[in-house]
Amino acid sequence: ALLFASLCEGESTILSFSHGEDNVSTANAMRAMGAMIEDVDKTTLKVKGTGLFGLRAPSAPLDCGNSGTTMRLLTGILAAQTFRSTLIGDASLTRRPMMRVVAPLRARGAVIEGTPHPKKEGDLTPPLVVGPLPNGKELTELEYTSPVSSAQVKSAILLSGLYAHGTTWFREPTLSRDHTERMMHAL
Asked: Judging by DSSP bridges, how do beta strands 85-88 and 62-63 pair with one another?
């Protein structure tokens, strides 16, 4: 909800917001790119979004803390931007594999670099450097069949699809959590 509210035009209210570390990392990253996020009370946020094409380059690396969800979903959003961003995290997050998100995003034209995984040849770990898209280039359509069911991978691809020219198709072996699809339908 926080990511979508940050990408919408106008003001959104998020009720029942948890201030857990993962959500705080996401909020701080979106603030760094221009979304105005205000705590109304302990569980309510007001978000004034930038619009889909209004994000601005952050002045420092975006710290995802220990949140793989934050890093993977932001990678999908940042894949279409005209600026470069660096996604960092804590010691635990910097050991997690990211190729499952990076490979399909690269297949649609994204520019993403990372650190070679020390134990999994061909995989990457954070920090991730995402973008910019080359001048005149846009993300393309994508038909992707994921070898594993993953809501994070699916959400990153669907979020990148908001910026892509053409259709985004995502298939997975079994249905993973569908929060992103529900939010997209609601919007």
From this structure: parallel
As a whole number of angstroms, the distance between CA 94 and CA 97 comes to: 8
Helix (H, G, I), strand (E, B) or coil at 128: strand
Ranges of the chain with pLDDT below 70: none
For residue 106, which amino acid is it? R
Q: Which residue has the tokens 């979020």?
A: 159
**SS3 state of residue 166:** strand
Q: Which residues contact 84 (CB under 8 A, 6 or more apart)?
A: 57, 129, 130, 131, 132
Q: Dihedral (C-alpha) 63, 67, 71, 76: value to the nearest 10 degrees?
A: -140
CA distance 141 to 46: 33
Burial class (CB in 10 A: 0-12, 13-18, 19+), 131: buried
Name the 3-class secondary structure at 44.
Answer: strand
41 and 83 Cβ atoms separated by less than 8 Å = no
**Phi-psi category of 65—alpha, beta or left, where left has phi over 0 and alpha has psi -120 to 50?**
left
Q: Write the pLDDT tens digit of every residue in 60-101.
A: 999 999 999 999 999 999 999 999 999 999 999 999 999 999
Count of Cβ atoms closer than 10 Å to residue 159 Cβ: 25
Q: Kindly report the three-state secondary structure assignment for every residue of 66-94.
A: CCHHHHHHHHHHHCCCCCCEEEECCCCHH
Look up the pTM and report it. 0.95
